[in-house]
Amino acid sequence: MGYFLQQLINGLTLGMIYGLIAIGYTMVYGIIGMINFAHGEIFMIGAFISIITFLALGLVGVGWVPLALLIVLLATMLLTSVYGWALERVAYRPLRSSPRLAALITAIGMSIFLQNYVQLLQGARNKPLQPVITGGMRFLEDGEFAVNFSFLQMLIIALTIALMIGFTLLINRTALGRSQRACQQDLGMAALIGIDVDRTISLTFIMGASLASVAGLMFLLNYGVIDFYIGFLAGVKAFTAAVLGGIGSVPGAMLGGLLIGLIEAFWSAYFSVEYKDVAAFAILVLVLIFRPTGLLGKPDVEKV
Amino acid sequence: MQAPGARPPFDLLGALKDAGRVAAVVALLTVALLGARVQDASSGPPLLFRFDDVIAAAALAFFGRLGVALLRARRALPVLVGAIAFALGLTAILLLGTAAGGGEGAVLARRILPFASPVVNWTLAIAAWIMSARAAWLLWHASESTLDSEAREARMDRLGARIQEWARLVGPLLLGVAVVLPFLPGIDRRLLDIAVLVVTYIMLGWGLNIVVGLAGLLDLGYVAFYAVGAYSYALLALYFDLGFWTCLPLAGIMSAFAGILLGFPVLRLRGDYLAIVTLGFGEIIRIILLNWYTFTNGPDGISGIPRPTLFGLPFTANPAEGEASFHSFFGLEYSPLDRIVFLYYLILALALVTNLFTLRIRKLPVGRAWEALREDEIACRSLGVHPRNTKLTAFSIGAMFGGFGGSFFATRQGFISPESFTFLESAIILAIVVLGGMGSQIGIVFAAILLIGLPEVFRDLNQYRMLAFGLAMVTIMVWRPRGLLAHREPTIRITDHPSHGADPAQETRA
Amino acid sequence: MSRADRALLSVEHLTMRFGGLVAIDDVSFEAPRAKITAIIGPNGAGKTTVFNCLTGFYKPTVGRLALRHPRRGEFLLERMEGHAIPAAAGVARTFQNIRLFPGMSVLENLLIAQHNALMRASGYTVGALLGLGGYAAAERRAIERARYWLDRVGLVDRADWNAGNLPYGAQRRLEIVRAMCIEPVLLCLDEPAAGLNPRESAELNALLTFIRDEHQVTLLLIEHDMSVVMEISDHVVVLDYGRKIADGTPEAVRNDPAVIRAYLGEPEEEARE
Hints:
The complex is a heterotrimer of chains A (about 300), B (about 500) and C (about 270).
Chain A: H1 2-32, H2 39-60, H3 65-92, H4 100-122, E1 127-128, E2 136-142, E3 145-150, H5 151-173, H6 175-185, H7 187-192, H8 197-223, E4 225-226, H9 230-245, H10 250-270, H11 276-290
Antiparallel strand pairs in A: 1-4, 2-3
Helix pairs in contact in A: 1-5, 1-8, 1-9, 1-10, 2-3, 2-4, 2-8, 2-9, 3-8, 5-6, 5-8, 6-8, 9-10, 9-11, 10-11
Chain B: H1 12-33, E1 36-38, E2 47-49, H2 51-72, H3 76-99, H4 104-112, H5 118-140, H6 149-180, H7 189-214, H8 222-239, H9 244-266, H10 271-291, H11 293-296, E3 302-303, H12 326-329, H13 337-362, H14 365-375, H15 377-382, H16 387-413, E4 415-416, H17 423-436, H18 441-457, H19 462-479, H20 504-508
Antiparallel strand pairs in B: 1-2, 3-4
Helix pairs in contact in B: 1-2, 2-3, 3-4, 3-5, 7-13, 7-16, 7-17, 7-18, 8-9, 8-10, 8-16, 9-16, 13-16, 14-16, 17-18, 17-19
Chain C: E1 9-18, E2 21-31, E3 36-40, H1 47-54, E4 62-69, E5 73-76, H2 84-89, E6 91-93, H3 106-112, H4 115-121, H5 126-129, H6 135-152, H7 168-180, E7 186-190, H8 198-215, E8 218-222, H9 226-232, E9 235-240, E10 243-248, H10 250-254, H11 257-262
Parallel strand pairs in C: 3-8, 3-9, 6-7, 7-8
Antiparallel strand pairs in C: 1-2, 1-4, 4-5, 9-10
Helix pairs in contact in C: 3-7
């Protein structure tokens, strides 16, 4: 029971991270119908900017953890969203009316570029970070084993929920959210009724990137080590989450993220750690074959 | 509308503002990742700051953007002066720095240069020279009006057509060079090794081109079939003691079978989903190879894979008792180069088979159906083309050639491990196909020489190779989404088949 | 009634629902052999959906679609896979927004329409790759058929053009003759006259009557252009909101008060005819 509960907590934490990345995939897909393959790299860049900001704050002597965390959070959201914005502006906007495959190839090219850019600038080795938040709550103690709910995990879950609430309000209550939903329905029509489509798409990328950067920060804190390659796997898993939840649906992305996180945690715990990544890919393949619209997606009728 | 040669009005303040914005964005992009490097050593400061690089990047962005804006407005003179001054200065310092060796001059040069890496500096210098050339060209041809995008498309299409026409002449020439390459003067072991590598990628590019270029199926997991071929070859050769020429077709069949197995459920998916699923499949294969110890020996890989033989003649210095080797059979002096020459011809033959196969099948109904599926799947269905089966043939044939390539890889290396079959390999092969012009056979040759050969010859470029791959993929797609040399010749012409005046409908009329 | 007298196509109780939306509601009609049947109705009446059901792009929720092929017997289209309907049952179609293979040549477009016959002739590729005989002759025959049809629509000179570079009217004609290259018994045309000028429209009428009279093909036609409908169709089916509201000769239908009310709208709009 205790072991199960522990995996549940671990899985939820992981799922929150995947969910935050998945939102970026799902929003971009919803609005311009492309798979932003480079989104995983945006997450990785977020993690790198976080570690650099932490180390820089350490050098200038900001020692109080809540303040340091807040500065890192804001810095990584700001700087990473510039990457998201530039990505769309440079690589995707010129291809908006091109065939889908051209845009996907560009996205893959961008992903390769960003990965190697970070590798060149920061080196290929693992980058460790001393634990920033330590301690936690232990309960259900049973001899050797106790369920550990660390403060870090609490922070990750709380922060994700807060971001989700803010984000939902943003989409449902503001003019930006309305124009976003209009663009999802029909880009051409949205432009006709006077919505600034370029701006809306840019803002979508900025929001997606800033959520992914928070995920990068959480990943860094949770695992304590990052490298330039983390974006690939996390990206594919988050994309799986978005597809599982129903691509185009924001609640679906969060739900999918949680499910992928839980599946990964339980799979590693009860089956095999080695094949945990196979589980994510297998789910992706199965969902796409049997229910391509995902759990919360709308069915899409083939236009002839 | 303006008269030719008239200069459009130029808003200097606006251009300055715009360049300033670009510089600000570049500064924001680079401030963390370029401005501070996380140090690997546990002692000493955790960060190394390089803010001068950030400033240099922002300044370059500012002037570059301003220069482009000026060129667009046909104000070429200031750009010419600035770009030439910059290019000259940079080139001079770079040359002096190189000439000075490790002395004081080199230290000084390093301090003046914008970035630490010579490759980046040289790239900058080349970019500045290109900009100067463009500015000079504009000054000399002041009367010509700039092309709009449609005219540019048409011009590029004509260029593509001309290059392909030219390729018909150059193709045999290249083939001739390829055939005599091992005997050309100045070819040493290293260059021959590189040639083997380049031809391997040409073959893989041609194999993947069937899937991506012809059938329009974006396969991001091509390396999986390469891996299946390599492991099939290695395991068959080791456990069943089969020779190369038996294993090669078997490995190809295994890969084709893997292609069918994967393709059958997923080929009805839409293009971009298919891409992601194939990517997933590639990773699944790699993870399985990594963890299935009893079968694949896990991360340690398989070693001692038999080397290829020429009809049973091994390329060894000291053959086993009572057996002949290549050199003793032909009464030659033993040379370690023999095996490499043999490997070279082997892969050249495999590549040519792939090419001839593609050229032939394009003119057959199945090849035309692949291209039709790429163009419009719904129309295909309405004409009675079975979409999944047709895609499946393309997918499995592509996989088969990947398997052949994998077998060759295994026999060349004598050792394989899952590390050789990462997504990166798939990305490299895809980049070759995309840059070659998706469907253009000669384009793939050039792309492979450029992307594989060049960085191998100039080792310094190697660490920038993938960076350049990514950048090139983006640039080419943005510039010409259909591929660089995307001009397509019809597979059949009605003029080749003059009418005999018959009315075929007469026979078939209901 | 002998088999030859019966209609080529019988649509019985066809119903198509998408979720809660009923696009076609219990529609039955027949398409007489070697005649032109027009399906008309206001936008959203479900005309294209009928075509999509007939050609296997949608699986009907309810209904029977029986096609009596003169040589191959009866087919129940609702049970067949999309690609098998043209190949086996001989049902060809065109699309409302032309679907050619724009990057391929005109001739190649017509050869793809003969894909299945050519595949058999090429020994499913293996034979032709090994150089076994028969394929070259089959390809020549296929080109002859293509030439025959290109001649009909005046496109022989442009056979080596990219289909996408043809002018709009020529693309429409090409799509129709491409469909004819599969040797259909039933040809479904989705708004073939849309966007054509009067001269092109007249040429289209001639082409369609030629197909009907000389090749004994049954035509099913969705059309908004009433001049085309009234001039060439032998039989008209009127749909409105997914239901059939009239069925008969063009004269009978144009005088049917229900049709005038539902389709032609207010009486003063009759001038559109």
